[in-house]
Amino acid sequence: MNIELTVNGISNQIDVNENTPLLWVVRDMLNLKGTKFGCGKAACGACTLHIDGEAVRSCSYPVKNAIGKEVTTIEGLSSEGQIHPVQQAWIEEIVPQCGYCQPGFMMTTAALLEKIPNPTDADIDANITNVCRCGTYYRMRKAIHRAALLKQQNT
Amino acid sequence: MSDSKNKKGWSRRKFLVRSAVGTGVVLGTAYLTRPVQKRSLAQIANTIEPPYQGFTNDPTIWFEILADNSVLLYSPKVEMGQGIFTSLAQMAADELEVDIKRIKVLHAPSASGNMDFFSTGGSTSISSLWVPLRELGATMRQMIMEETARIWNIPSDQLTVSDGIISDGSRTITYGEVVAQTTEWKIPKTPKLKDISKYKYIGQPIPRVDLEDKVMGAPIFGMDATMPDMVFGAVVRPDTIGATLDHIDLGGVADMPGVIQIVQEPDFVGVVATSRMEAELAKEAIKVTWKAERNWQLSDIQEMVRVGKGTAVTVQKKGSPKRILDNEDDVLQSEYTSPAGAHAQLEPNGALAFVEEDRATIYMSTQVVRLSREEIAQRLGLKSKQVNIIPTFLGGGFGRRLYTPNAIQAAVLSKAVGKPVKCFFNRKEEFQNDLFRPPTHHIMRGKLDKQGNILAIEHHLSSGDVTYGSPLLPKAITSFVGSDAGAWRGGMIQYHGIPNHRAISWHVKLPFATNYWRSLGLLANTFAIESFMDELAEKAGKDPVQFRLAHIQDDKAGKRLKAVIERAALEANYSNEVMKGRAMGFAASTDVNTPCAQVAEVSMENGMIKVEKVTCVMDPGISVNPDQIRAQCEGSIIMGLSASLYEQMTVVDGQLQPTIYGPYRMALMRDTPKEINVVLLQNDDKPGAVGEPPLGPVGAAIANAIYRLTGTRARDMPIAMV
Ligand code: FES
Ligand code: FES
């Protein structure tokens, strides 16, 4: 069927089976490759993006549910000329190793900071449940605290 | 270095004593022709750092200099997270005399001619390229200087260079401008390398060169590759150990939405469709019955992997350990086990292949560019040169991509439909078709003398394949060494001060594939040996740190090992006391000549072990990029902690399980120590192995801490609950 899907502020007309996971629409039809496939079963978080500001695991989210909503992917996290504090913090802490899991973590973190602007370690432990095989969690924790700080300074 | 003229009349020098192309294996001819016993051969193999296996005599296949004076560095080694692209850029920038910001590191496609004939693995990318790459950079710089001298018609020694701009005092010209005017290059003698103290980038914690791409979500991975008119493939794979195809029912599949073609080959069945989802749904709809000879259970596997079963080779021996341990009283004996472990790298295996009549183009995440090229060429009936493997950034390697024959299937599907086909595993397939870390069983025996020093010690290891059966190593090598060099990695006794010691490797053939997993046998072997060292120290009534130090010899390796042990004890303020509900555990190992000591601090939370802090002291020799070495230590500690505490593949009714993250329990954010303190020592004058050595001590350090905290000795991984 034909649907209209707004991703990173741009509206797209696409012809797709409405039950297709949003992940594949974003990756293969809109060619936004920053959102990753890790498991396809909502178990790793590599595919995390935002739907109306909420972190969603897009591999397990049918595209039809996103109609009429704002989808944001890692490519749209920073606004023109202004890098998002989470990405800034990730750069300052030199977090990524292989990098494959990182967009999912950054999207999860960005959504978390909207809810809890200054998360404690316990908040981070409870809310950041994505998988990173390279074991970058140690730097990620530092980056999350730093992002919270940067974000408060910006506003 | 001597000069020799090649056919093109270039002066062609050797960059390396042994450029090694054609020998193509870790253990080169130098070792094979010597009539040595298998035991000493094994000892050699344990410390060998294989030289780079590729072309290092022509800078023009490594570097491309663009008109804007930027430099492309084509790397034959792949970037899988270990940070080598950054270190390679540092090494090149310092000798090329350009600002590192001007260097972009790219994966060299196999067709470029700059191909590693072996692999990216074994923690040797930087150590093996340390000399050749700097020499290539220096030579490239010299080539450009000499061309400039020709253009300006003045002697080259009147020229100076800074950041890619050459000057004779009155005028300047950029590398890019020189290159634009040069059609044929003369390769000069290798210039003398700079003194290490003169380097601007080497030794500095330069931020990763791929940082921005990875933070902004750039499409750099194999799974991100696209080509015009690309379609999607899926391949039916067995989910049962040892299963062969019994019956296949394709009824109705060809008419499913999006299906382009079903491809039946002698060894697999695949389907090509217009989207990933359609390909997956069509594959699921193919009704396959499998036939398996046996309904394997975990207990069957555990019974096979026992010391005493299979074949044994003594890989290390000094003195008469057997006589002492068989005959004396009061011999301490302990057994340890570790389970099969999955790689679980986040990016699944797969490839994008486009096969045309006379060539094939393959985008893929692989650690074995050459092997993949040869396999695909053979299957398609093409010449090697007609297959171009374009390596992409890897979404994790960890050894999982040291064998990537799945690319053959993408190529075969592409040939069948005449379009580019992208074909990737799903997660269940990834778990069930992994080449696992083999399960192990260890028996340690030890005997103390009257003073409480170790008189004799031995380590028996039983393991499935690691290097055995690997297509990467010719059979002749593995059978000549006589034992599985990967399985006993880290399995030898490093306490050479013990007068009688030996290590024996037992090999069993398992019904499912096991292979290279980051650090190979190191984690499990160190778990056994270093746990046992604590057990012996306790029996002797000695401090575990002093006890270790007392048994290390004063040769170079011994001194380096002692230094990391002493420093780790100091940094962590190591104590045998339980303080504020926390206890410490100590362990040390040496891997590929890099010694590493760690102290783990653990506590209990609701009956579960929590690792609060890890102190890690490692001596990798020269640290080209100390920040990325730290990152490798942090990552290794977390991966080793994960494997030691939580991870376990099991076998239920012939199926390898679990098949998804979560049930395959791995360390998450909440399990990560709040403190990881990494200290780097430098007691060698060259860069050594980094990516695997820090995985060694983790498991044993945690187990030793748990013992101190709870009084219970954890002897079976995973050890989360004791
Ligand atoms: S791919 Fe969506 S959670 Fe793993
Ligand atoms: S950085 Fe590699 S999986 Fe997270």
Structure description:
The complex is a heterodimer of chains A (155) and B (722). Chain A has five helices and five strands. Chain A is an alpha+beta fold. Chain A folds into two domains: 2-76, Ubiquitin-like (UB roll) (Roll), CATH 3.10.20.30; 85-154, [2Fe-2S]-binding domain (DNA polymerase, domain 1). Residues 1-38 of chain B have low confidence and may be disordered. Chain B is an alpha+beta fold and 722 residues long. The radius of gyration of chain B is 27 Å and the shape is globular. Chain B has 18 helices and 28 strands. Chain B folds into three domains: 12-212, Aldehyde Oxidoreductase, domain 4 (2-Layer Sandwich), CATH 3.30.365.10; 222-292 and 349-424, Aldehyde oxidase/xanthine dehydrogenase, molybdopterin binding domain (Aldehyde Oxidoreductase, domain 4, 2-Layer Sandwich), CATH 3.30.365; 305-341 and 435-710, 2-Layer Sandwich (Aldehyde Oxidoreductase, domain 4), CATH 3.30.365.10. Classes of the chains: A alpha+beta (155), B alpha+beta (722). One FE2/S2 (inorganic) cluster (FES) sits between chains A (96-102, 132-134, 136) and B (81, 346, 396).
Let me know the largest β-sheet of chain A.
5 strands, mixed
Number of helices of chain A: 5
CATH topology name of the largest domain in chain B, in short, is Aldehyde Oxidoreductase, domain 4
Question: Terminal Cα separation of chain B, in Å?
Answer: 60 Å
Structural class of chain A: alpha+beta
Straight-line distance between termini of chain A: 42 Å
The CATH homologous superfamily of the largest domain in chain A: Beta-grasp domain
Lateral arrangement of strands in the main beta sheet of chain B: 11-12-9-19-16-17-18
The level-1 CATH class of the largest domain in chain A: Alpha Beta
